[in-house]
Amino acid sequence: xxxxxxxxxxxxxxxxxxxxxxxxxxxxxxxxxxxxxxxxxxxxxxxxxxxxxxxxxxxxxxxxxxxxxxxxxxxxxxxxxxxxxxxxxxxxxxxxxxxxxxxxxxxxxxxxxxxxxxxxxxxxxxxxxxxxxxxxxxxxxxxxxxxxxxxxxxxxxxxxxxxxxxxxxxxxxxxxxxxxxxxxxxxxxxxxxxxxxxxxxxxxxxxxxxxxxxxxxxxxxxxxxxxxxxxxxxxxxxxxxxxxxxxxxxxxxxxxxxxxxxxxxxxxxxxxxxxxxxxxxxxxxxxxxxxxxxxxxxxxxxxxxxxxxxxxxxxxxxxxxxxxxxxxxxxxxxxxxxx
Length: 339
Ligand code: PMP
Fold this sequence. Notes:
Elements: E1 17-19, H1 21-27, E2 30-35, H2 45-58, E3 67-71, H3 75-87, E4 90-96, H4 101-109, E5 113-117, H5 128-142, E6 147-149, H6 157-173, E7 180-183, H7 189-198, E8 204-210, H8 215-221, E9 251-255, H9 257-271, H10 277-293, E10 298-303, H11 317-322, H12 329-333
Parallel strand pairs: 2-10, 3-4, 3-6, 4-5, 7-8, 7-10, 8-9
Antiparallel strand pairs: 1-2
The chain binds 4'-deoxy-4'-aminopyridoxal-5'-phosphate (PMP).
Residues 43-45, 73, 75, 184-190, 233-235, 276, 278, 304-305 line the site of 4'-deoxy-4'-aminopyridoxal-5'-phosphate (PMP).
């Protein structure tokens, strides 16, 4: 077999699992992180982008030279733009203006045309998701090669990527010894997809939900109620997306930022892992599940993306202080933060 990849798409997935030493030692379990930041677009969302594009091509909806339109917090857009570039498609990305500058810069670099809109709730017609749907409809009429709306929240090609790739990869990489899997929800593709692949094999599936999200309340009380807030990006949800439908996790944890962010800082300081905030929510959730299941278990979670994508916020002492979040001494003391 040749070791050469024929294109970018074939480099997506098959990410390694890494043992997280601190969280494992603290819980007596093996806590393993799936290193999704090693995908070509540096996030777990490359998988969804690949499956959404492939599905649209297979259905005949996306034609050569066509345009992919999406509303995204950033990572899906980066995946769509890069996979799109490698296959000859253009991309237009609608992003809430509150998202990090690093992600916006990366999107432009990846060749996406960026449309920034105010961050307003889903029920508002100018919400980035709804705005992107309208824009796709308009472009479909004017673009010579047509346009599609990727619709990552309700397009189940998204979770199919995790049913077919991520779930089976985790099973094979642990030789079927995985006891638990934990993930936050943005679209729900990762949680429901891996859950649908591994729950029937007896793996306990748990949600880790940030402040400001209503999914934990939905799974525990049946009602959508959001409490608190979070500086993490790309996760949190206020409705049951099509990707979540037909799936229910076995456990659910609500994780505050002051529990998740110290884990991100510890993993950077002691284990050399530069991660984004959602990875901290996930690892905190994995530690909660480890404590609930008891010692000796193997728990897998997702290391969603690379931390440089959030350097101006997550690793910025002034920003953290403004949000009343803990600032690790080394972040200020050793010239490691952005000036
Ligand atoms: N972490 C980050 C950083 C993300 O961008 C996303 C997706 N928006 C997620 C986690 C959640 O993944 P999913 O959409 O599969 O629920």
